[in-house]
Amino acid sequence: MLVRKADEKDCHEVSGQMTMLIDEVYAHESEEVRRVLKANFTQDALRELCRESHARLFVVEDGGRVVAFLYGWLFFHVFTIYWIYCLKPYRGKGAVKMLLDHAEAEVIAQGCYKIEMYAYAEHNKFLDFSAKLGFQKGVLIEKSMFGFKIQNIFKYVASLEGVNRERKIKIIGEAGHGVKLLSFLLASILSRLGNEVSLNLEYDAAVRGGKISADLIYSDLKIENPIIDEADVLIKFTRTREFFPAKRLVIDESLCEDAAVECSVKNSHGTYYGFENVAISLFGSKVYINMIALGRILRYIGINILLLNIRDLLPPQFVEKDMEAVKYGFLYRDDV
User: Fold this and answer.
1) Is 194 exposed, middle or buried (0-12, 13-18, 19+ CB in 10 A)?
2) Which residues of the chain have pLDDT under 70?
3) Secondary structure (3-state) at 69
4) Quick check: 13 and 66 in contact, CB under 8 A?
5) pLDDT, tens digit, for every residue of 194-244?
6) Considering the entire predicted model, what is its pTM?
7) Quick one: DSSP state of residue 263?
8) Alpha helices in 166-288 (DSSP H)
9) Which among 147, 183, 135, 160 is positioned nearest to 290, based on CA atoms?
10) Which of 55, 132, 262, 331 is the most exposed place for a label (fewest CB within 10 A)?
11) Where would I find the H helices in 229-318?
């Protein structure tokens, strides 16, 4: 058996095994739950996911056939494994351990210090197996989007000495962009996943049309300083040349007319995403900018919205439309 990084041609076999995994692990859930889960991991969906820079997909091959796979997301030195599966004839032959060992070696070489998984909490056999591999239990999510429990498990795979375990998100906008709601929702989601979270909001003196910014920091340690000097991710909803240091920039291209790059004169690695244009054309109002952005941010930092019942966090008045906008930003598929 050979373990290797997957390529696009493997998506057909992996998608088929993903269907088998969902049918097996979620056998006690409703057919609707299984249908929605499968819709997010079709061949086309997997291809889209694997084109993301943070995505990692590894397979075990035997005789030219994929017999096991592992899919995860590496963001800010933390590798989150979302799916791992092995065909039944190959179980007990070391394929899953090979996958985990290979993935661990790969991500450690890329600076990873922690590996975590979110497992179906009723899957006791897998939880017992993972404990033998050094994983320990973290937060238990009592109510996921589908109403069943999700168990976080994790292990540290590198020395923590000198490791910066804080992840920093800076959001800048103006009154009307929903920055306050967006930042509170994001903070609530990250907190429910067991993180320490700090949120600091800053307003301009002008009540109407003034700038508003949010410093959101999350970590598995206590946060000492709530102010961000350099962001890991910067989200800008407002047209400004004001420079703020960040490793990654996301702006609303519709604010910058034809020359989007002018909004990021000191960052050549930005992702340009037309939140306002999409909000108006697909959802009928720019008030959904922040919900589309929320889905996009969660996708970028590797938070799977299937894990949480986000609906409970949203304002009840427009919850259905808000959920649609979040799912759109995340590229969630429940209607395939």
Assistant:
1) middle
2) 176-177, 205-209, 239-242, 251-273, 334-336
3) strand
4) yes
5) 899 999 998 875 555 678 889 999 998 899 899 999 998 888 887 666 678
6) 0.83
7) G
8) 179-192, 275-283
9) 183
10) 132
11) 275-283, 289-301
